[in-house]
Amino acid sequence: MLHRIICKYAFTQAANKTALTTDAFKGLRKYVNDYQPHRAQKGLGDSIDFEKDMKPALEYYRSLGFSKKDLGFIFKSKITGLCLNNGSNNRLQQDIIQLTSFLKQEFNIDNNLIRRIVQKNHTLLSSTQEEIKRRFNVIKSVLNLDDKQALDLIVLYPQIFTSNAETKINKVKRVFTVWAGFSEEQCNKIIQMHPYIVDFNQEYLHDDLKLLLTKGFKSDTLFTLISQNPECLIEKPVHLEHSFHIPEVLNLTQQQTIKTFIENPELITICPISIIPLKIKMLKNFRVLNNNLKTLWVQHTDLFTHSIGSLDLKHKYLNQRAVNFGKPKDIVGYYSLHYGSVIRPRCEAAIQFSKNIDLDVDLKISEEEFLVKHSIPKEEFEKLKKQYRITSEKDYKVRFYTQTIKSKPVM
To answer: PANTHER family annotated for this entry (predicted)?
Structure first.
């Protein structure tokens, strides 16, 4: 692939200040001319001087920290984005050096933020400075933001910084206003918090809101849920419907169901067909769940948002490493605690310093109280904590597609 050759060139020949061979020149030009997305621009490869146009640009990209993958994306979407606008190449509005200089001067941002914005939004390379200013002012106006808020939003989700931003934002606001009854201020707040929502499937967005309304959600509860977990609106309606099956089987009232989803918004996007039944079976095997699943679901809903792996780790640790401390009476409370930051470091500290701890008490007090109570040096405890990876321990969202939306560059 040509983009691989270009990337290798950027990180090797360009770095070593060596020139491409005649054969490499011919090969690169031919590949650019023949590459399907660039065929419409006839003779594009012949118009590029790889030594004068591309090499300095690649060196500059490299100085900004762009990876081979990033350069590959730019090649696929806009090969001229890998060149300088030095007269021999008149297909660019501005090259990466001109764009970087403008963004620094206009928005007072550093190279790291510039790299993030350009990585995710290649359209800036073919936009004039006036167009970029116009886009920025549009986002400020349509969402009623100040300069700092607008810039923070663009850094959070650079893909929104396009020529059709106003259209996409207004479509989402219209759906929220009509179907959820949100005010202008509420619409703006949700988009400011989760700007990637403007690229959600509009049909799903509309149908999911209708479904949530039929399940008893009102404007205020919908706003709370979406503010915490907008991913529920990217589900196919049939999948979102499944999330209500277990509460319905347990004969929960609409109010109880809404309360559990509001307090634990991740639960609505965890697969109720494969993941939740596995957890129920696991908790039965761990003797956490006896016969009253309804009580556990209502009173300890957060337990079902912990990943299967973290629940298994807590079980093994309790029955192997921490066996000398005995079984906690509040077994549900134990499995609800964080393994990496609470359970393991405190138990390991107790083992290392020969302390006898009560799992029902010492795992629930604050860290400072724990250290004072058992005379454990804070420095030594911090060393122990650094040995263990700290994660959220929340369940992997099987139908969580927003990560793809966030990572996909705008071509």
So the answer is: CGI-12 PROTEIN-RELATED, TRANSCRIPTION TERMINATION FACTOR 3, MITOCHONDRIAL
The full set of domain ranges for the chain reads 2-106, 308-386
Query: Residue 90 in 3-state DSSP?
Result: coil
Which amino acid, residue 346?
R
Are 29 and 6 in contact, with CB atoms under 8 Å apart?
no
Burial class (CB in 10 A: 0-12, 13-18, 19+), 377: exposed
- Of the chain, the end-to-end C-alpha distance in Å amounts to 19
pLDDT tens column, 337-378:
999 889 999 999 999 999 999 999 999 999 999 999 999 999
Average pLDDT over residues 386-402: 65
Q: How far apart are CA 167 and CA 274, in angstroms?
A: 38
pLDDT in tens, 75-84: 777 777 777 7
Give yes or no for a contact between 44 and 79, defined as CB atoms under 8 angstroms apart.
Answer: yes
Torsion-angle region of residue 270: left (phi > 0), alpha (psi -120 to 50) or beta? beta
What is the pTM for the complete model shown? 0.79
Q: Read out DSSP for 56-82? A: HHHHHHHHHT--HHHHHHHHHH-GGGG
Structure tokens at 331: 């077994």
287: left (phi over 0), alpha (psi -120 to 50) or beta: left
Q: Is the pLDDT of residue 383 over 60?
A: yes
Q: For the chain, what percentages of helix, strand and coil (3-state, to nearest 5) are there?
A: 70, 0, 30
Distance CA 200, CA 65 (A): 30
For residue 250, what are the contacts with CB-CB under 8 A and spacing of at least 6? 293, 294, 297
